[in-house]
Design a protein that fits this description.
The chain is mainly beta. It has one helix at about 30; strands at about 1-5, 10-15, 20-25, 35-40, 45-50, 60, 70-75, 80-85, 90-100, 110, 115-120.
Length: about 120
C-alpha cells in the first residue's frame, strides 16, 4: 500500500506562487511508481496536471506548461509542485497521486492523497 499526504495549499493572489508537497510512505520504492498531481474543480472533470516517473523526464499538462514544475526527492519520498504565475482558473483541489507508468507520458492513478485546496483570487 501507498499513503500520500499533501500540504502547501492556500490562498494566493493572481500572479502569485505556491509550492505543494506530497509525502509518500509505503511501497513507492519497491514498485518504482510514477508520482503526479491532479486537480478537481466543481462541475468539471478531474484534470491531469503533472507527473514525474521513477526514471525519465517529467511532463506537465499544456494548461500549466511554463508555469508549473514538478520535481521529486526520492531520498525524502516527496514530490513537489512549484506553481508560478497562478491564475484564478488554477483554483481547485489538488490531489497527489501515485501509480504505474503508462507510456512515456502517462500514468495510472492507483493511489490518491486527501487533497489540498488552492485558491487564486483575482
Amino acid at each position: 500500500q501507498v499513503q500520500l499526504v499533501e500540504s502547501g495549499g492556500g490562498l494566493v493572489q493572481d500572479g502569485g506562487s505556491l509550492r505543494l508537497s506530497c509525502a509518500a510512505s509505503g511501497r513507492t520504492f519497491d514498485q518504482h511508481l510514477t508520482m503526479g498531481w491532479l486537480r478537481e474543480t466543481p462541475g468539471k472533470e478531474t484534470e491531469f496536471v503533472a507527473a514525474v516517473p521513477w526514471s525519465g523526464a517529467s511532463f506537465v499538462a499544456d494548461s500549466v506548461e511554463g508555469r508549473f514544475t514538478i520535481s521529486r526527492d526520492s531520498a525524502k519520498n516527496t514530490v513537489y509542485l512549484q506553481m508560478n504565475s497562478l491564475k484564478p482558473e488554477d483554483t481547485a483541489v489538488y490531489y497527489c497521486s501515485a501509480g504505474r507508468a503508462a507510456g512515456p507520458k502517462g500514468m495510472m492513478h492507483d493511489y490518491w492523497g486527501q487533497g489540498t485546496q488552492v485558491t487564486v483570487s483575482s
